[in-house]
Write a structure and sequence with these properties.
This protein has 230 residues and is α/β, with parallel strands linked by helices. The chain contains 8 helices and 12 strands. The strands form 4 sheets. A 4-stranded antiparallel sheet has the order 10-3-11-12, with helices on one face. The mean pLDDT is 86.
Length: 230
């Protein structure tokens, strides 16, 4: 599918985002705006407003796509594993919990909620994933963090990187969507490629593709939004 994003505009926007995050001044709307360097790594995300779309009548869409560069490397994972997977997780420095650890939570809603809050995503061994609802109740599902399956032959680190670099577009009742495409420590070109691929993938999910996209902005966590599609 043809990319409808103006590459010169996207190029300048990403330049501005990176300069702003380094504390440099950028020109926005004819005025100079002074940036500020934050003491955390800002995420870069795109924000999209849809048009000619009725969330009540039109089919809701949902899709996941793997970006070439991990947009949020700091996402925290917890492995709910069998003995072999817990040992593997230990070797690569990934927090892990065994069946016995999960049993200790005693299906206590508060404790399960706390666990769900502590990590960004979970993975579970194939022989454990079926037991999760029985051991923990619906807490992880409610938090939208039901574990990703890790089969016995899978490479754990590769699977973790795959989850970290996968973005999800899901249509709910609102006409706005936002998704992480990078962070301010990435190379400019990596952010541009991730953005173009994410935008194209979103368009491919829509009934009228680019005609359903009203506006698209790109911004860092604390920076001003830059419009890249009108």
């Amino acid at each position: 599918m043809a990319n409808k994003l103006n590459s010169a505009l996207l190029d300048k926007s990403v330049d501005d985002i990176l300069a702003y995050s380094m504390g440099e001044s950028i020109s926005k709307g004819g005025e100079d705006v002074k940036g500020k360097k934050r003491n955390f790594v800002e995420t870069v995300e795109i924000q999209v407003t849809l048009k000619n779309y009725d969330p009540q009548r039109d089919k809701r869409f949902s899709g996941t796509f793997r970006l070439p560069t991990v947009p949020r490397p700091n996402l925290k994972c917890c492995m709910l594993g069998n003995a072999a997977h817990c040992e593997q997780a230990d070797r690569i420095g990934v927090p892990h919990m065994s069946v016995d650890d999960l049993k200790k939570l005693n299906k206590n809603k508060k404790l399960v909620k706390k666990l769900a809050k502590k990590y960004d995503f979970f993975m579970a061994s194939d022989n454990m994933i079926k037991q999760i609802p029985r051991l923990l109740g619906p807490g992880l599902t409610k938090a939208g963090k039901f574990p990703t399956l890790l089969a016995s032959g899978d490479d754990m680190q590769e699977k973790i990187d795959e989850v970290k670099s996968t973005i999800k577009f899901q249509m709910k009742k609102v006409m706005c969507l936002n998704v992480a495409v990078g962070n301010v420590e990435m190379e400019k070109q990596q952010i541009i490629v991730n953005t173009q691929l994410a935008a194209n993938f979103l368009a491919s999910l829509l009934k009228k593709q680019w005609q359903n996209i009203g506006q698209m902005y790109i911004k860092s966590t604390m920076g001003p939004p830059m419009q890249i599609f009108f």
